[in-house]
């Protein structure tokens, strides 16, 4: 039997799913036995422990105008890691002034103030993931 035919035979038997195969032709004797099929490994994790934290302070109602994220992405408070933040709590801002950046799909989108006023609160941290419509700033 030619070498190419033997290789084809080995592949055919391997793909067939047979666990054992024997072939004899004259002085040629081929015997193959498949390995044990490996089962899927399933890893069981311990049950998650629920942690409850008591809220010591009552949430305060937000007073002022809210600037929300127009898209999902990563929030950046400064134009580069070495630069100062666009705004800080207490800064006076004008309508159209850049408050931060939301990166989405490698595009940097400036978040501009929709109002004139003072930055009363910054509700998001640098490099935090933001959702569409999530509150970012409070302008008083």
How does this model look, in words?
This protein has 140 residues and is mostly beta strands. It folds into 2 domains: 3-33, no CATH class; 65-139, Beta Barrel (OB fold (Dihydrolipoamide Acetyltransferase, E2P)), CATH 2.40.50.100. The chain contains 1 helix and 10 strands; from the N terminus they run H-E-E-E-E-E-E-E-E-E-E. A 4-stranded antiparallel beta sheet has the order 3-10-8-5, with no helix packed on it. The chain has a 4-stranded antiparallel beta sheet with strand order 7-6-4-9, with no helix packed on it. The longest helix is centred in the first third of the chain and has 14 residues, at 3-16. It is rod-shaped and about 95 Å long. The chain starts with a helix and ends with a strand. The model has no long low-confidence stretch (mean pLDDT 82). One of its GO terms (biological process) is fatty acid biosynthetic process. Pathway: Lipid metabolism; fatty acid biosynthesis.
């Amino acid at each position: 039997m030619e070498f190419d035919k033997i290789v084809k035979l080995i592949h055919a038997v391997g793909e067939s799913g047979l666990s054992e195969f024997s072939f004899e032709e004259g002085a040629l004797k081929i015997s193959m036995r498949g390995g044990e099929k490996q089962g899927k490994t399933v890893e069981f994790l311990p049950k998650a422990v629920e942690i409850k934290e008591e809220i010591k302070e009552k949430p305060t109602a937000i007073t002022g105008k809210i600037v929300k994220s127009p898209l999902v992405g990563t929030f950046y408070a400064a134009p580069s890691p070495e630069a100062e933040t666009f705004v800080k709590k207490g800064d006076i801002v004008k309508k159209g002034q850049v408050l931060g950046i939301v990166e989405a799909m490698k595009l940097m989108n400036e978040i501009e103030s929709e109002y004139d006023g003072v930055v009363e609160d910054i509700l998001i941290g640098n490099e935090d993931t933001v959702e569409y419509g999530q509150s970012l700033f409070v302008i008083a």
